[in-house]
Design brief:
By secondary structure, the protein is an alpha/beta fold. The protein has 23 helices and 30 strands. The protein folds into 4 domains: 49 residues, ADC-like domains (N-terminal domain of TfIIb, Single Sheet); 212 residues, 3-Layer(aba) Sandwich (Rossmann fold); 191 residues, Dimethylsulfoxide Reductase, domain 2 (3-Layer(aba) Sandwich); 113 residues, Barwin-like endoglucanases, CATH 2.40.40. The longest helix is centred in the N-terminal third of the chain and has 19 residues. The chain binds ligand MGD (2 copies), iron/sulfur cluster and molybdenum atom (MO).
């Protein structure tokens, strides 16, 4: 059966299933395939990347799950929904009766729609009454969010529409490779590129860095020092915006006490970035008519990631950029709903509307909407890695429900995480395909995917979008909302507390978010269907939305932004004699995240079929490795194998691995789970390794 044969053959306007750009596309169902056509939506302006073009292939893929699977005698076997859901509910009840409510845990994802993220948080707190819920956004935007909250009093990745970037003649892109991670985004940088003002900070010479007029390649994990050096140059070279700092900020003095010690020549010794280049960056940004500082995971995914983002924000504040139309500071959110996913309560410390779970007023507001007593709501739980690390331990969870993440591939120290999962009494995974995590589960639940269901997403600019249903789901699969409903009922909840209709869930979400920082109360499906561009907060149905935050004031009570004093510490694991190189990890254009989806699309897996490691040719040669050889890369956590790609522009002390591949090709077999003290972000972007031929030792 083809999925689309029975659906109407009219084009439906929707958005891409993958990243936070949420490119606009139309889907036209046709027998046997669904046709993707790009649309003129502001974020992509008619562009799509190769992942977007090929996204419909997974709708009809034979890799698609269409029946629940239950493990019997060690093997996953086809089952029925009733059997699967009954089994999960019975086991959860037994486990919680024996070990307490927190013995059941939930792991969510930033790809889930707002409705799913909201209902998942409610399910954990109300149906399971567990505090143990967190999600993969902890591995993604948490450092950016922590720093944004401190400085601005609110966390919206981009507090301005993307199209504003066109007005900039200088953009500093830090740890971002949008030419591969968001290709249609690059067109928004054209103004800066044409003006010779695109500056890229990345230890690798990426396709993005190739387009820059200035590429700084610091040693990985030294960005914080670099930001201090550039800020020093701003002050020393008379480029500091005194009037802005006086009227719109607080706290510069404490920052200067640290920055004063980080003159560019000293910073050069740590980062390898020439002092003259640090001064050039300061001058380019200060002299630009309009300038932006934008960060992404390269600078954020460190054990000092939150402080590093604070350092870049301090630089932007000293130049007077945030809250000025045509200029600003922003963090590039990654996952499709990475922004909305962190606002509606699937995070360990959070309730809907970006409320804090330990705030009594927030608890009361949300408990009211949910029809429970505030005291019944659990408190904050463990962060993502800490949760995975605690699984099956004496006081850790004994059951885990995963929705929208493939942690066996994407979590740091992945072998340890897989070992923790194996100690559980119950692992449940809801997914479209048999991901590496689903393959370890006791019960696998097949769910619908983007084009087969309705829901809202909030893109990287805080704009709420309606993803429309374009085709009918295959027989046998259910939506995540239906799964939560089915489980909640079996756990003794009234059915109407867990609606299966996305619009009904959204109506409740609006009420729950009312008065919160991320206020969606004025947004309706009707307004979204009418094509309105609504950026949150939207506090009333008559409110036009807030494309630009901070033009008049920041979100702190006094309206001023905060400088946050931070100092350089460096990577948690410096190289040594045993592990003399540093490894960093990231992305390639053709694959998305753990690769669960894109590795199952032929065109993409043919283009990049296996893991590779980028190495400087001399570094490779010294170890007896040539381009195309298979190499062994080892760290204190484990070892992985990858095909050598000799890249003459690489730093000789660095190797790079994409993290999209499974099994013994997982980059995360190496990574260091050292956590940022504030954001609890793991240090994905730097660890000490050695490199050798597959059977040699060095
Ligand atoms: N093709 C593709 N696109 C994606 C995704 C995907 O998986 N594949 N995922 C989406 C998601 S969820 C996210 S979060 C975004 C991520 O988007 P990006 O942040 O652009 O992607 P990354 O490749 O993780 O990291 C960016 C760069 O950081 C550099 N880097 C490493 N260490 C350091 C360092 O210490 N300092 C600095 N300054 N840079 C460093 C790396 O060399 C890399 O080129 O992409 C989104 N888009
Ligand atoms: N070494 C290293 N590791 C990293 C990173 C890095 O840069 N380096 N980046 C980190 C970052 S930024 C991120 S965001 C994470 C992402 O890593 P993951 O959390 O593993 O992300 P995905 O691979 O997108 O996993 C989503 C899973 O959910 C399924 N899925 C998709 N949509 C739905 C849905 O609507 N419902 C349900 N139930 N399932 C769905 C997909 O098929 C897939 O199996 O990886 C992190 N890990
Ligand atoms: S850039 Fe992101 S949203 Fe756009 S087509 Fe590619 S993966 Fe999809
Ligand atoms: Mo991400």
């Amino acid at each position: 059966m083809t999925l689309t044969a029975t659906a109407p053959a009219t084009a439906v306007d929707t958005h891409c299933p993958y990243c936070a750009l949420q490119c606009g596309m139309s889907l036209t169902p046709r027998p046997g395939e669904t046709q993707v056509t790009p649309r003129d939506f502001p974020a992509n302006a008619g562009g799509l990347c190769q992942k977007g073009w090929t996204s419909a292939a997974l709708l009809t893929s034979p890799a698609r799950l269409t029946t629940p699977l239950v493990r019997v005698d060690g093997e996953l076997r086809p089952s029925t929904w009733d059997t699967a859901l009954d089994l999960i509910a019975r086991k959860l009840t037994e486990i919680q009766a024996a070990h307490g409510k927190d013995a059941a845990a939930v792991f969510g994802g930033g790809g889930l729609t707002n409705e799913k993220a909201y209902l998942l948080g409610k399910f954990a707190r109300v149906a399971l009454r567990t505090s143990q819920i967190d999600y993969n956004g902890r591995f993604c935007m948490s450092s950016a969010a922590a720093a944004g909250n401190k400085a601005f009093g609110i966390d919206r990745g981009l507090p301005f529409p993307l199209t504003d970037l066109a007005e900039a003649d200088a953009v500093l892109l830090v740890g971002a490779n949008p030419a591969e991670t968001m290709p249609p985004f690059v067109q928004h940088l054209r103004g800066a590129t044409d003006a010779g003002g695109l500056i890229v900070v990345d230890p690798r010479r990426t396709p993005t860095a190739e387009q820059a007029s200035l590429h700084l390649a610091p040693a990985p994990g030294t960005d914080l020092a670099l930001a201090l050096g550039i800020l020093h140059a701003v002050v020393a070279d008379g480029l500091f915006n005194w009037s802005y700092v006086d009227t719109r900020t607080r706290g510069f003095d404490a920052v200067w006490r640290i920055v004063a010690r980080w003159w560019p020549e000293r910073v050069e010794r740590i980062t390898g970035v020439a002092a003259a280049d640090q001064r050039r960056v300061a001058a380019k940004l200060a002299r630009a008519r309009n300038a932006y500082v934008l960060t992404a995971r390269g600078t954020e995914q460190h054990a000092s990631g939150a402080d590093t983002v604070s350092a870049w924000i301090n630089l932007a504040l000293a130049l007077g950029l945030p809250g000025r139309k045509g200029s600003g500071f922003g963090c590039l959110t990654g996952q499709g709903n990475g922004q909305g996913g962190r606002e509606h309560g699937q995070k360990a410390d959070q309730l809907p509307g970006y409320r804090k779970i330990d705030d009594p007023a927030a608890r009361e507001h949300v408990a009211n909407i949910w029809g429970v007593e505030p005291d019944e709501l659990p408190g904050p739980g463990r962060s993502a890695y800490e949760l995975l690390d605690a699984l099956g331990t004496e006081d850790g969870p004994r059951a885990l429900l995963v929705f929208g993440s493939n942690v066996v591939v994407s979590a740091p120290r992945a072998a340890h995480v897989a070992e923790r999962l194996s100690t559980l009494d119950l692992l449940v995974v809801a997914d479209l395909v048999l991901s590496e995590t689903a393959a370890l589960a006791d019960v696998v639940l097949p769910v619908t995917q983007w084009a087969e269901e309705e829901g809202t997403m909030t893109n990287l600019e805080g704009r709420i979008l309606l993803r429309r249903q374009a085709i009918r789901p295959p027989a046998g699969v259910r939506t995540d909302l239906e799964v939560l409903n089915g489980l909640a009922i079996r756990l003794g909840q009234p059915a109407d507390r867990f609606p299966v209709d996305a619009e009904t869930v959204f109506t409740e979400l609006r009420a729950a978010s009312r008065g919160g920082l991320a206020d969606y109360s004025g947004i309706s499906y009707e307004r979204l269907r009418a094509g309105e561009a609504l950026h949150w907060p939207v506090p009333a149905e008559t409110h036009p939305g807030t494309p630009r935050l901070f033009l008049d004031r920041f979100a702190h009570a006094d309206g001023r932004a905060r400088f946050v004093p931070v100092d350089h510490v460096g990577p948690a694991e410096p190289p040594d004699a045993e592990f003399p190189l540093q490894a960093t990890t990231g992305r390639v254009l053709q694959h998305y995240q753990s690769g669960a989806q894109t590795r199952r699309i032929e065109e993409l897996s043919d283009a990049v079929p296996e893991a590779y490691v980028e190495v400087h040719p001399d570094t490779a040669a010294r170890r007896g490795l040539a381009d195309g050889d298979r190499a062994r890369i080892a760290s204190r956590r484990g070892e992985t194998t990858a095909r050598v790609r000799c890249v003459p522009t690489m730093r000789p002390d660095l190797v790079f691995l994409p993290f999209h591949f499974p099994g013994d090709q997982r980059a995360n077999l190496l990574t260091n789970p050292a956590l940022d003290p504030t954001s609890r972000m793991p240090e994905f972007k730097v660890c000490a390794v050695n490199l050798s031929t597959v059977d040699g030792d060095s």
